[in-house]
Amino acid sequence: MRHPVLTALCLVGTALLSGCGGGRDAEVDRALKSLSAADESNLNEIMLTVGAPDEAVAYFRGAVEKAPDRIDLKRSLAKSLVRAQRPAEAATVWSQVVNSHEGTNADRVAFADTLIRSNDWSRAEAELSRIPPTYETFERYRLEAMVADSKKQWTKADSFYETATGMTTQPAGVLNNWGFSKLSRGDAAAAERLFYEALTYDPTSFTAKNNLVLARGAQRKYDLPVIQMTQTERAQLIYTLALAAIKKGDVTVGKGLLQSAIDTHPQYFEAAVRSLEALDAG
Fold first, then answer.
1. DSSP letters along the chain, please?
2. What is the rounded end-to-end Cα distance, in angstroms, of the chain?
3. Maximum CA pair distance of the chain?
4. Rounded distance, CA 68 to CA 70, Å?
5. Rounded CA gap, 222 and 65, in Å?
6. Using CA of residue 66, residue 70, residue 76, residue 79, what is the dihedral sign?
7. What is the predicted pLDDT for the residue at 10?
8. Given this model, what pLDDT does residue 255 score?
9. Helical packing angle, 251-264 and 270-281, nearest 10°
């Protein structure tokens, strides 16, 4: 099978050969426009997915300046700004997208996500409320759970977290968020179970590992859980346990764990050394 781009080039060549006189005919123009659109689409996809974030922002900002009515380019600019960790700027662009005649429910969900990244929870909630209840996606329910969490509407948050978890094959992130929510409410045992579950989907997530140790420490479980970890991670997790023990008032246990973290780390563990010296001095 011929490559689509080669086929398009052949069409252009055929049209040029068949023409006579000075101008290109309609068939040539159509072929060139089709080829140009395909090239632009491919380049846009590359910039969105594998291009450096700041380079992608510059590329799409320039494209929008040349074609300010192109909502697809504004959408790509907003996504690039999020990738570049510039959510406030991205929110401005998303607002233009969702308020255009081409704005979609998916765009509004992305807008709400960006507002949460900007810590603008009230506006995020308002945008989510504008989405019809029939629009049911993982991202929508994930954000609904986070908004309910921010308002301490625990029953509502749990319902949304559960729904979101069932709508994806990779729920590690949402399970971790749900676990942290449980931990913040003081339900460390439930949090521990959720962090364990998150690690079954993503055993490499250090955030989930650290949160799991925090949940165990909150229950005065000062031994490390049986999970996959590197030696450096082991030292860092022991350090987390040490801080949890000290926070609970178990200072002697905490000091022992700090020394264990120092002995376990393959390099000089400055944070643990400082903490242990501060305890000794105090």
1. ---HHHHHHHHHHHHHHH--SSS--HHHHHHHHHHHHHHHHHHHHHHHHTS-HHHHHHHHHHHHHH-TT-HHHHHHHHHHHHHTT-HHHHHHHHHHHHTSTT--HHHHHHHHHHHHHTT-HHHHHHHHHTS-TT---HHHHHHHHHHHHHTT-HHHHHHHHHHHHTT-S--HHHHHHHHHHHHHTT-HHHHHHHHHHHHHH-TT-HHHHHHHHHHHHHTT--SPPS----HHHHHHHHHHHHHHHHHTT-HHHHHHHHHHHHHHSSS--HHHHHHHHHHHH-
2. 76
3. 94
4. 6
5. 57
6. positive
7. 42
8. 96
9. 150
Number of residues written out for the chain: 282
Q: Which amino acid is at 49?
A: T
Q: Are 255 and 272 in contact (CB under 8 A)?
A: no
Where the chain has pLDDT below 50, the residues are 1-22, 28, 31-35, 37
